[in-house]
């Protein structure tokens, strides 16, 4: 006999992290190729000397710094153990068995996991042409039982960002008592002038909650710190669902110092964006149908050839992130790693074209 566990856990997919193997180049987890920003490691090490103490429960200094940078009151903020941790808190604030949570698919693989842990039903809405989110379909999927809609922009793993007009129309279509989470994990990498910036919609939509992270542009993936920006009532509920002392003192100090290094952060993100443009344009020239990307990765629609393509990349020393029978997500890395990837992608595409006698991979 084993203890009776919740049946809801049975069909929860296991989170699959991007592979990491010694000696291979990791382009599988959307990490920042740069080390921590200047001054951040020193401050984290200094904080580590206090590891016999609990961290500041309210993360007051970090919240204050975020409020100042974002131009929002402190009571609009909640921090947590990475934005996935914050998302789990958010889902707990609204969803329980009998409720529905609507989200796009294919999108961030944590979404169905955190929803099912709360026992709520998942409503996955297919992407539209160009691997973009279908905001009309997302709004249309809302029912009386819907408590939450997740919107990912730029969308992981496909890349396109939600446009301002479509987001405005979407927010107008969703009932005011349904929470909308706008997951902006890659917001710092967005360069499209028409892309929606969640901060512009907060004042007019109290049911909107933004989700942001230090894991990507700030390069603190290993320290686990992210945050939500929301109406004070929602932000307070999110804070209630936090694991006490979840965000370590080391993470809080590293995040504060990182926020004070905006210029260095922007320079690094600019370098990644320049590489992203170069990689996407080269792939298009090779013949790949790569969707728009406003993030730090590209999406290759390799279809049923996905495992074979990932294996080919691995033979070339590159770890990418395959999504079986759909495609591969490839993180933008250092220039020479991107070159190695482009060479592999070009060779593969030509090879497939010869085999299939067609325009290339599915
Ligand atoms: C990487 C990512 C996150 C951030 O995860 P953390 O828990 O903050 O490391 C959140 N949402 C999306 C869509 C992501 O790709």
TrEMBL record:
Residue stretches making up the Aminotransferase class I/classII large domain: 24-343
What is this enzyme's EC? 2.6.1.57
Q: Which SUPFAM superfamilies match?
A: PLP-dependent transferases
Task: Indicate the transmembrane segments per the record.
Answer: none
Single GO molecular function: histidinol-phosphate transaminase activity
Pfam annotation, one family = Aminotran_1_2
Q: Which residues form a coiled coil?
A: none
* Reactions it catalyzes: an aromatic L-alpha-amino acid + 2-oxoglutarate = an aromatic oxo-acid + L-glutamate
Could you tell me which residues carry N6-(pyridoxal phosphate)lysine? Answer: 216
Q: Which domain of life is it from?
A: Bacteria
Q: Which cofactor does it need?
A: pyridoxal 5'-phosphate
Spell out the InterPro entries in the cross-references: Aminotrans_II_pyridoxalP_BS, Aminotransferase_I/II_large, ArAT, HisP_aminotrans, HistidinolP_aminotransfase, PyrdxlP-dep_Trfase, PyrdxlP-dep_Trfase_major, PyrdxlP-dep_Trfase_small
Keywords from the named record: Aminotransferase, Antibiotic biosynthesis, Pyridoxal phosphate, Transferase
Indicate yes or no for the key word Transferase: yes
Give the protein's biological function: Aminotransferase that catalyzes the conversion of aromatic amino acids and 2-oxoglutarate into corresponding aromatic oxo acids and L-glutamate.
Tell me which PANTHER family the record gives.
HISTIDINOL-PHOSPHATE AMINOTRANSFERASE, HISTIDINOL-PHOSPHATE AMINOTRANSFERASE 2
Q: Which family does it belong to?
A: Belongs to the class-II pyridoxal-phosphate-dependent aminotransferase family.
What interactions and quaternary structure are annotated?
Homodimer.
> Protein name, please?
Aromatic amino acid aminotransferase
Species name: Amycolatopsis acididurans
Gene behind this protein: hisC
């Amino acid at each position: 006999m084993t203890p009776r566990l919740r049946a809801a856990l049975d069909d929860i997919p296991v989170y699959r992290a991007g592979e990491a193997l010694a000696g291979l180049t990791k382009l599988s987890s959307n990490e920042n190729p740069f080390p921590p920003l200047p001054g951040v490691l020193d401050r984290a090490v200094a904080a580590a000397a206090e590891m016999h103490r609990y961290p500041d429960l309210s993360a007051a200094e970090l919240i204050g710094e975020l409020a100042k940078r974002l131009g929002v009151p402190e009571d609009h903020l909640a921090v947590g153990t990475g934005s996935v941790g914050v998302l789990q808190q958010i889902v707990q604030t609204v969803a329980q068995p009998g409720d529905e949570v609507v989200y796009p698919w294919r999108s961030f693989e944590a979404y169905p996991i955190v929803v099912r842990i709360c026992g709520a039903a998942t409503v996955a809405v297919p992407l539209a042409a160009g691997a973009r989110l279908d905001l009309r379909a997302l709004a249309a999927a809302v029912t009386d039982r819907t408590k939450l809609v997740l919107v990912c922009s730029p969308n992981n793993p496909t890349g396109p960002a939600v446009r301002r007009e479509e987001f405005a129309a979407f927010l107008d279509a969703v009932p005011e008592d349904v929470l909308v989470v706008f997951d902006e994990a890659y917001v710092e990498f967005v360069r499209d002038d028409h892309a929606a910036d969640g901060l512009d919609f907060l004042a007019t939509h109290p049911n909107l909650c933004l989700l942001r992270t230090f894991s990507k542009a700030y390069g603190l993936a290993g320290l686990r710190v992210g945050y939500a920006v929301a109406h004070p009532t929602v932000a307070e509920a999110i804070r209630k669902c936090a694991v006490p002392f979840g965000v370590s003192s080391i993470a809080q100090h590293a995040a504060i110092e990182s926020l004070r290094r905006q210029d260095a952060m922007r320079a690094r993100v600019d370098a990644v964006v320049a590489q992203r443009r170069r990689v996407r344009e080269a792939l298009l020239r090779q013949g790949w149908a790569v969707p728009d990307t406003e993030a730090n990765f590209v999406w290759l629609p390799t279809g049923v050839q996905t495992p074979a393509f990932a294996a080919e990349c691995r033979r070339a020393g590159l770890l990418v992130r395959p999504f079986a029978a759909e495609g591969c997500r490839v993180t933008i890395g250092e220039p020479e790693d991107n070159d190695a990837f482009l060479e592999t992608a070009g060779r593969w595409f030509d090879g497939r074209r010869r085999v299939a006698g067609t325009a290339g991979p599915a």
